[in-house]
Each structure stands twice: as structure tokens, then as C-alpha cells.
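=== RUN LOG ===
request id: a7f3
mode: sequence -> structure
chains: 1
length: 259
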Amino acid sequence: MKTKLITVLMAGLLSLSAIAGDKPPSNYRPNENDPAYVAQDKTQTIQKRVAALESLRSTPSQNGLIAIARALKEDNSSIQEAAIIGSYGLSAEYRWKLLSPFLEDKNPTLREAAAYSLIKVYQQLAYSMKIELDKQIPKLEQHYLSQQDSFSRFKLAEVYRLTGETEKAIAQYQMLVDKIPQNQAVWVGLSESYRIKRQDKKVLEVLEQGIKLNQNSSQLYYAKSLAEVRQDNKAQALSDIRSASILAETNSYYWYLYA
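=== RESULT ===
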């Protein structure tokens, strides 16, 4: 859905470099509460612009794409890193165009951030792109292994899962569910790893265990509903997506599926 949205929005536009340099028309009246506007407003504090850029990952749009492209050209690593995080909502094609130059950046933080963002769409990349990105994975792996915090280990697990190192991913996720069982993304990642291995019974076991510990997690109920559909348990799948919809009452997509 997001990929289609970006493709439609970008159809007929010029190159990204041209977009990043465009000036708005004289009669343009921006929505000053729009994160894409705040991200580009240099009268705002760096902290506010960083928060606005990072929030763009969940609301991809033409204005958001322009804000990200412009931010990546700035000479401020905090702004650039936030723009890389904001790119999570973009299609693989546009993400590669924007971020691949950072794979050789002299700033290791930006290199690692760009590599991780691109790995999140690894399966959608062309073979030649994967070859180039593969060169960065060992360095990214060593960086995450050298860190002691749970978020770095979660990112490492994601890297393993998305690049086909499923057993390594499972080992990391299992360590994390013991350490931070309240983190629903860890349970989803573990269940996805078992799905890749076609162990559907194990997928359900993991999600049921995660729900017992996180009874208000809409994300886990949604993941379980998908697993039940794969097992042809339609009644249970409907019950789970209903639970997800109630818990995340503002998520119209869940309600759409339930209806």
C-alpha cells in the first residue's frame, strides 16, 4: 500500500536532486502542523525538526519525501540521521536512490543507519543492489554485537531475519523475549522467523505466549490473526482481528479487515 502511494505521488516528478531544490510557489500556504513542513522549517529547533523527520516513517507522502530529500542534503548529521529513519515509509526504489550514497559516508552513524534502513527492504531490492548492500552487513553485524543495549540486539535480529540468517535471528529474538518480554516487536520478529521456516505451529505458540504477557497488544493479535488464516482457522482469525481492532481503535486498517 505504501509502495503504491509513493509511486503514484512521485509519477511525473523530476529527479530527487531537483525535488530537493524546488521552491514553493509564492501563493503556497503550508500546514504549519504538518511534520513535513516542520522538518523543513529551519526556524524550528533541531530537536523539533528531528522529531518531525522521524515521524515521517509512518506517514509517507509527497511532501514527506521532499522533506527527507532536502534534509539528507543538509550539513547536520542529526538531521540526516533523522531523515534516514523517516525514510522507513518509502518504497525500496526511492529509499535506495536517497540512501545508497550514504553507504560509503565517512560518518559511521550515517553509514549504519542507511544500511539498516535499506536492509528493511532487502527482499525488494534488485540483485545488484543486494550485492552492494551485502558488503555493509558484516560491519553492521559487528557494530550491533559490540553494543550491550537491547535495541541494538533487536536490530541485529532484524538484520539476520531480513537477510536470510533465520537461525541466528531466532537465537537473538529468544534472548530478547527473555530480557524484554513487554516488547511486542520482539515477539512478532520471532514469530516471523518461524514463519519463514514454515513452522506454523511454532508461530502460533510464540504469539500466544506473547499475548499472555502483553494482553493489550493489538500488534500481536493482528499477527496471530494472520497465522490463524494460514492455518485455515477462520473463526479464530476473525476473533483475533476483532481484538486487534478494539485494542487499536483508531487503526482503520484493522477495522477494515474485520469488516
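=== NOTES ===
DSSP finds 17 helices and no strands in the chain.
Residues 1-20 have pLDDT under 50 and may be disordered.
=== END ===
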